[in-house]
Amino acid sequence: MITWNDFEKLEIRTGTIIEAKDFPNAKKPAYQLSIDFGPLGIKRSSAQITHHYTKEALTGKQVVAVVNFPPKQIANFFSECLVLGVYDENNQVILLQPDKQVLNGQRIG
User: Fold this and answer.
1) Separate counts of helices (H) and strands (E) for the chain
2) Residue 31 Rama label (left phi>0; alpha psi -120 to 50; beta)
3) Long-range contact list for 20-27, CB < 8 A, 24+ apart?
4) Which of 16, 25, 34, 46 is the 20 to 30 Å CA partner of 73?
5) Structural Rg of the chain based on CA atoms
6) 3-state DSSP call for residue 8?
7) pTM to 2 decimals?
């Protein structure tokens, strides 16, 4: 079990995907995402979401991500945030997202 103070350390924020590109150097199929987090700026992320989403469908989509992990190198790419999702019955990721438009950078809590 974690404490409430542990949970509060996580910076989970909303952002809008402004660009999605193929990531051919990833071990598993993935996209390189650029996400606008409003006052926090634009952060990049690698996301294994190619099964349910096309690059074109991702542009403009709001997502939820953890933005205060240190950057993680994945092949030749540095992922600066962790986009959150749920695994379906086939172990493919479905993105978590607000059901209404919200401001980029809003904190989840």
Assistant:
1) 2, 9
2) beta
3) 20/53, 20/55, 20/56, 20/58, 20/59, 21/55, 22/55, 23/74, 23/75, 23/77, 25/75, 25/76, 25/77, 26/74, 26/75, 26/77, 27/75
4) 16
5) 14
6) helix
7) 0.94
CATH number of 4-95: 2.40.50.140
Domain boundaries, the chain: 4-95
Q: Is 90 exposed, middle or buried (0-12, 13-18, 19+ CB in 10 A)?
A: exposed
Contact 14, 102 (CB under 8 A): yes
Q: How far apart are CA 4 and CA 1, in angstroms?
A: 10
Phi, psi (deg, nearest 5) at residue 6: -60, -45
- Convert the pLDDT of each residue in 98-107 to its tens digit: 999 999 999 9
Residues with Cβ < 8 Å from 90, sequence gap 6 or more? 51
- The owner of tokens 């402004």 is 18
- The predicted-structure confidence for 3-37, as pLDDT tens digits, reads as follows 999 999 999 999 999 999 999 999 999 999 999 99
What is the Cα–Cα distance from 71 to 35, expressed in whole angstroms?
14
